[in-house]
TrEMBL record:
This is Uncharacterized protein. Residues 40-62, 86-113 are annotated as: Disordered. Residues 50-59, 93-103 have a biased composition (Basic and acidic residues). It comes from the Bacteria. Residues 1-20 form the signal peptide. Keywords: Signal. The keyword Signal applies. It comes from Pedobacter terrae.
C-alpha cells in the first residue's frame, strides 16, 4: 500500500512539474492600432532688421561635500555622511544608544523630526 501511494505521489509531482513550464495556450491578443496625429507648427517670419535675442538658460548646481545616491538620500558609505548622521538624543537612552520612547522628552523630539 505504501508503494502504491508513493508511486501516485511521484506521478503527480512529475505531471505538475511537466506542466508548470509550458506556456498556457490562450487566444492571441488583438494588436493595438496606433493612430498618429500630425501636428503642424508655424513660426512667425523674422524681420531682417530685428535682432534675435538668445535666451540664456541657467542651470543651478549645488556643490556639496556630501555624496548622495540617485534617490537623493545621503550615501552612508562616505565618512562625511556618517558624521552628519549622528544626532544627539534629548532624553534618556537605551543600552544600544537609541532614544527611549517611554519618556516624554524623546517623544516630543521625534514629533519635530
Amino acid at each position: 500500500m505504501k508503494k502504491l501511494l508513493s508511486l501516485i505521489a511521484i506521478a503527480a509531482f512529475g505531471l505538475t512539474t511537466a506542466f508548470a513550464q509550458t506556456p498556457a495556450t490562450t487566444t492571441p491578443a488583438k494588436a493595438k492600432t496606433v493612430a498618429k496625429k500630425e501636428v503642424k507648427t508655424t513660426t512667425a517670419p523674422v524681420k531682417a532688421g530685428a535682432k534675435q535675442e538668445a535666451k540664456k538658460v541657467e542651470t543651478k548646481t549645488t556643490t556639496t561635500a556630501t555624496k548622495v545616491k540617485a534617490d537623493g538620500t545621503p550615501d552612508m558609505r562616505f565618512k562625511e555622511n556618517k558624521a552628519k548622521a549622528v544626532t544627539k538624543v534629548a532624553g534618556p537612552t537605551k543600552k544600544d544608544g537609541t532614544a527611549d520612547m517611554r519618556y516624554k522628552t524623546n517623544k516630543a523630539a521625534a514629533k519635530k523630526n
